[in-house]
Amino acid sequence: MACDLLLLVMAQVALLHVVLNWKSPSGLAVTISLSLVMGFLALWAANAHRHVWGRVSLHDVMGLFGAAFGVAVTTAALVSFHVGMAAFSRVLIGGTVMYVCAWAAPRLLMRLWLEWYRGRRVPASNVEPVLVYGSRGRTEQFIKIAAESSKYRVVGFLHDDGSLSGKRLHGVDAMGPLSAIGEALLRLRAKQHDVKRLVIAGDLERPDELAEALVAAAEHGLLLCRLPSLLSFVEPSRIGEAMQAVSIEDILHRDQVSIQDPRVPVSLAGKVVLVTGAGGSIGSELVRQIALHRPASIVLVESCEHNLYQIDMQMSQRFPRVPRTAALCDVRDRAALAGIFARYRPAIVLHAAALKHVPLMETNLDQAILTNIMGTHNVATLAADHGAEIMTLVSTDKAVNPTSIMGCTKRWAEIICQSLDEARGDDPSATRFACVRFGNVLDSAGSVVPLFRQQISAGGPLTVTHRDMTRYFMTIPEACELILVATAATAQTRPARSQVFVLDMGDPIRIMDLAERMIQLHGLRPNHDIAIEFVGLRPGEKLFEELAHRDEDLTPAPFPKASLARARGCAIDHLEIALGRVFHTARQGDDVDMVDALTALVPEYAGRQRPEPARPAVENFVTVH
Q1: How far, in whole angstroms, is CA 527 from its chain's centroid?
Q2: Catalytic residue among 151, 271, 398, 561
Q3: Which of 106, 274, 531, 568 could form a disulfide with 461 if both were Cys (CB 3.0 to 4.6 A apart)?
Q4: Strands 197-200 and 223-226
């Protein structure tokens, strides 16, 4: 404030004595004194005493203009009292200009010097030039933040606003629409700007818009990134951490599922929850989501030592107050599993442990039977024997009209749970059983996404089994959320008989499109920078997956984004006989006998030598544009 008052005195002397040539010492002293009082009040009202000079904004300058006008009115009135009204307008206009200049100029010069100095401190080689595409407001915001950071510098921006053509925004050229990206890059590279990244600064929420930007970026060898929606809250020094690469989930034509059913926290709070396969992709996410709902404890059952160690360490860091037990146990080991059930008495059991790799199971039939069928039978019967409230099986769409051993054994697992649930009869205290069936999970272990990512890192080629192959996809978090919702709904609605929850996966995705988009996400061009090869269907694979059998009567589930399939079960006595036979053949190791035993409960199983099932009647699938 003292500096501003000193600047005011200097401006008053320059205006009255030098410019207006006012020679009255007494009048000059009185006018300056009273103007100082008015200046103090006006500057205080404009919060000038709180300004950070190196960060002065247009809003601050407008406040100084108001203060200058107030002081100029006071000065003009005092001068007019001494020399007449003829001087009023001259003093008012001249004073306003002089005072604004006196107060604003030092602040602006300080800001310019600091920005220049910051730019000089960071070597140009350490600052990455980027091209921005998006709405005017978000682009302007990013330009400001990038200018204060030492990570990025915006050297041009693309836009869909015709009024910006040929204009500049904060010193950055507007370079036309997205379709003009090639010309824009030529101009920038002619100025020695080696742009390698296209940043989306607008809210491009529709997958087709993102896909269009992705194709344009990949055609010119650029990585595509997007900014957080709350960009204004990002520290300039951390803009590199906040900027995210566009993910494959962003460009798939499907809405992300989020139900947030209030029954979930009620069903989990204060309960002992046991999760098998707790170190896997689905199991570990289930554990993390369960921990959010204050369970009494979580029992982590996992056969892989490394996976168990990883999820146990993660839980200790993220949820240190949630009690947990890490149990290294194979679900095929009934005695060890029985000891865990007897000790911890879980109220809720989520069975995610399974062997899921389709081609591997085709040559390891016995292992698929022992884990997927015997393991499920062990978990289900032990849950019932130890008084669990509910046991939920994580199943797969490959169990529908299975052509693979994996799919067939998972259908057996469904039938086991259905039969045990029907056998409980009308006993309200008996364990209830639920099955949740869904398709492929993006980025899960062994899925196509990490395989494509690894192949891209190796320089290709990407291997696609068939040009027309499609799959249903959902993300790991939404799949696990729906599993928990199905569990809670079953626990509260008490269905009369076992039912299979079929999750709404949206439309299937063409794997060929997925491969092309993943290549483009790395800033590369399909079949130019990275080749795509067709290797043919692997043993047990289908071209098209189905979520329900044609004879299953689908009805609405008691929560959104799911249906109930009244799948075929069997009597408990028949089940026990079939289980005895299939376990015997698995121990003997004869493939023919095992296949025959498997078809006893799943006659629709189309073995490895049988023809591919017909394409589903509804042929809707998503082409990722």
Answers
A1: 28
A2: 398
A3: 531
A4: parallel
